[in-house]
Q: What sequence folds into this?
């Protein structure tokens, strides 16, 4: 049986998705066309851990592990602010909005999720956790000059605060890759218990 492409995420409230959609519209108007594949605003989220293909029989145990993590977590808030690109402005692969959360709760939550899922056989990311909201990805057919122009435009943009997100649960998401873009469906929700 085929695996279920899955990840653990923080969902964003509708008003933040609207603000991000407006930001995307402004960026589209300022950058060359067909250089960036912009994420659909309704599907934008904060990824805490990508799991890859999960066996259908594992979904329940992953949900239980996330509920245990959530039960020990108090709600917290983070800010979305500023724009950036990965890996750098000359070689744009990802256009993002930064996440600012000074209490350390977000990083702690991600680490606890990673530890809980490691016991189920999911290896933690090798790269350090760098929380961000992906707005778009470079199109594979885009030329280097156009990508550099997008990078320059992004890093010179002054957007400031984009929105605030109150976090009181985490979600195990299923990702179905379609020609029109990924479609995300919640498989399990773990509410915070403190």
A:
């Amino acid at each position: 049986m085929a695996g279920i492409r899955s990840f653990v995420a923080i969902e964003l409230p509708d008003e933040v998705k609207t603000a991000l959609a407006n930001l995307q519209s402004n960026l589209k108007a300022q950058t060359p066309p067909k250089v960036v594949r912009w994420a659909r605003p309704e599907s934008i989220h904060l990824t805490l851990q990508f799991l890859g293909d999960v066996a259908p029989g594992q979904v329940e145990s992953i949900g239980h592990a996330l509920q245990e993590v959530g039960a020990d977590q108090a709600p917290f808030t983070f800010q979305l602010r500023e724009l950036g690109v990965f890996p750098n402005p000359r070689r744009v692969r990802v256009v993002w909005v930064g996440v600012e959360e000074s209490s350390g709760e977000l990083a702690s939550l991600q680490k606890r999720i990673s530890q809980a899922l490691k016991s189920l056989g999911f290896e933690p990311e090798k790269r350090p956790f760098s929380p961000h909201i992906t707005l778009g990805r470079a199109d594979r057919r885009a030329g280097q000059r156009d990508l550099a122009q997008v990078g320059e435009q992004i890093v010179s943009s002054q957007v400031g605060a984009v929105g605030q997100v109150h976090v009181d649960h985490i979600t195990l998401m299923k990702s179905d890759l379609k020609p029109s873009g990924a479609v995300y469906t919640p498989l399990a929700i773990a509410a915070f218990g403190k």
User: Anything to note?
Assistant: The mean pLDDT is 93. The first helix runs from residue 14 to 30.
